[in-house]
Amino acid sequence: MSDPLARLRVMQGADLPVHGGRTLAYVYDAGDPEIDRIGREAVASYAASNALDPTAFPSLLQMENELVGFACGLVDAPDTAVGTVTSGGTESILLAVQGARDCRPEVVRPRMVLPATAHAAFHKAAHYYGVEAVMVPVGPDFRADAAAMADAIDDETVLVVASAPSYAHGVVDPVTEIAAAAAARGVRCHVDACIGGWVLPYAARLGREVRPWTFAVEGVTSISVDTHKYAYAPKGTSLLLHRDAALRMPQFFASAAWPGYTMLNATTQSTRSGGPVAGTWAVVEHIGDSGYIELARRAFAAVDAIIACIESEPGLRLVATPDSTLVTLATDDSLDPFTLTDELVSRGWYVQPQLSFGTEGPSIHLSVSAGTLAHVEEFAVALSGSVSAARAAGPVVVDVGVVGFIEALDPAALSDEDFDGLLAASGLVGSSAEGDLELPTRTAEVNAMLDVASPAMRETLLKAFLDRLQRPVRSPA
């Protein structure tokens, strides 16, 4: 008989580490094993519970209401505020868009006004719910242009969006001006604080400058806050907060139009595991307000130290001075950013490359958490060594013929054979001797090729890549 847990441990060996403060994307590490233990045990104890029916598992309802109450205290919510626990930031954003659409049934072609830096989850919501995304260029500081956003609001606008902070650059939009413009037209204003919602309030209490973004700003109608980020809870929870219950009501779904039980859902999901809810509640209970102040202090100390490392390295620069815990850096012509990314990864630091967009070139993104502080001196050494190695390696150059070939392709007209050829040419996938797909260990050349492709071609190629990855593995008979 096989040992599935032993096999799990073997397979997990190929994954990024979720502890140690060196994975600067996807995971958020408090640097405290006790927090991790409490979260895992709570998840396990509620893994079979179902948040579908709050009357069947009232303990989950109690935990959700307490989590919402804690968050309301962070974001200056009025006594009328309500909230919902969701599965993550994307679901919180989807529900904010869906609720804004459904509260205006008279609008035939609903639109939402977004800064160009708004999270891609809003484009996903546009795709799912038929709400046109009107993208407004941002200013040179990468913050939303409030005047341009106000000008973009029309009679079909159902939602206006601001970020606190934006993911790609880590800056807070001018929420006060944006929310005022939305309120003047009777339009909802959603603040995407999935990243900042659990850390910016503590930044302010630590004396750091934070632009207004909470419910204290008139005109803000909803805020999304991820608990699996800087609340350091297990993956799978976020909060969508509304200024009052009437604003939340269109988010709910009910159906009695079938012979089974009357379906009633607060989120896009029906069945919801109680595990993530319990894990989040237990972690928040354990850390508490004073604990989060200390974790925020560590995270911002790490941010400041990393900024100093970047500013001391010739060839590197900050793309924007971060308002929160997200740091974005760029290189000059002496360094290839994608090679620098590979070099950092090879030294045990996972950072996230960001491709060119509009007039801005590629950059490197770091999501810094409290657990990183203990390792900033190691990061400084790794960064210096990576810069030297990337400078010695020189830039990654994509053949002009390949560039022309990619530019001439129509993403909508590619066949499966075209996809296979492009994926192989890009280096996204290779084949082992057994014919299995193999992922590249270094991605500079892959990213350089994707960087010259149009956004539409990138999307098409990466969807084909995902399709090739997600194929069944059949057990031998």
Detailed description of the structure:
The longest helix is centred in the middle third of the chain and has 39 residues, at 274-312. This protein has a seven-stranded mixed beta sheet, sandwiched between helices. A four-stranded antiparallel beta sheet has the order 10-11-13-12, covered by helices on one side. It has 477 residues and is α/β, with parallel strands linked by helices. The chain contains 16 helices and 15 strands. Strand 10 (316-318) and strand 11 (326-331) form a beta hairpin.
Keywords:
PyrdxlP-dep_Trfase, lyase, PyrdxlP-dep_de-COase, pyridoxal phosphate, globular, 477 residues, Aspartate Aminotransferase, domain 2, PyrdxlP-dep_Trfase_major, 16 helices, 7-stranded mixed β-sheet, alpha/beta
| Rg calculated over all Cα atoms | 23 Å
Quaternary state of the chains: single chain
- What's the CATH class label of the domain at 33-285? Alpha Beta
- CATH superfamily membership of the domain at 33-285: Type I PLP-dependent aspartate aminotransferase-like (Major domain)
Instruction: Kindly report the CATH topology of the domain at 33-285.
Output: Aspartate Aminotransferase, domain 2
Shape: globular
- Share of helical residues: 40-55%
Approximately what portion of the residues adopt beta-strand conformation?
5-15%
